[in-house]
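In practice, a research group might receive sequence data for several interacting partners and want a quick structural hypothesis before committing to experiments. The following worked case mirrors that situation: the sequences arrive first, and a predicted assembly follows.
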Amino acid sequence: DGGITQSPKYLFRKEGQNVTLSCEQNLNHDAMYWYRQDPGQGLRLIYYSQIVNDFQKGDIAEGYSVSREKKESFPLTVTSAQKNPTAFYLCASSIKQRGNLRQPQHFGDGTRLSIL
Amino acid sequence: AQKITQTQPGMFVQEKEAVTLDCTYDTSDQSYGLFWYKQPSSGEMIFLIYQGSYDEQNATEGRYSLNFQKARKSANLVISASQLGDSAMYFCAMREDLYNFNKFYFGSGTKLNVKP
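A structural hypothesis for the assembly, expressed as C-alpha cells:
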C-alpha cells in the first residue's frame, strides 16, 4: 500500500544535540512538507520541497534544516539552535500539479520529539 | 492576514445530533481548493472532504457535507448524526492555484467533543 512512513514514532533529544526525523513516501509525489504541531494547536509549516534538490522555508524554519536528495525522502534535522523543539512533527506529501487542486495532502503518522 | 480562520477552539455536541464547524478563508485567487481534515488523539491526519472554488454543488461525503458560501468566503463543515468516534480535532485548509499552488494553509483547528 502506498503511503508515508515517519520514523521514529518517539524521539528524545539531549541539550545541544541535533536529531534527524525520517520521512519516506512511495506515492510518487513531487511535493513534500514538514509541519510542527504544539499541544492543542494547529499545524505550522517548517519547510517544503516541490522537487528534488530544492526546498523552501516555511513560517518557522529557524533551528531546522532539510534535504531532498531523493524524490521519496525528505528528512528533517532539528538542530541545537532550536531552543524549544518539544512538539509533534508531521510529514506530508502531495501531487504537484497546477489546476489539479483536488488532490489533498497525505500525512504520515507523526514523530513526537521531547527534550531529556 | 490569516488565510484560514477557525473561530471555535472547542465544540460540544450530543451524540446523534448534527454539528457545524466554522471556517472562513482569505484569498484573492479565483481558483482554489478547500479541505477538511480530522485528527484523532492518536495524531494522524485524515482527509475528509474537498470543495473546489468552481464547484457548483456543495461537497458531500457520507455524513460530512460542506456548506460553501463563496461570497462570504466560508466553508463550514457539517457532520450529521454525530458519533462518539467523531471526537477529534478538525482542521480546515486551503490550496491556491495561482500563486504557490503547492502550499497548503491550515486553520488553528476546532476540538469537537461528542457527548453520549
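Before designing any experiment, note the following. Chain B has no helices and twelve strands. Chain B has a mean pLDDT of 94.
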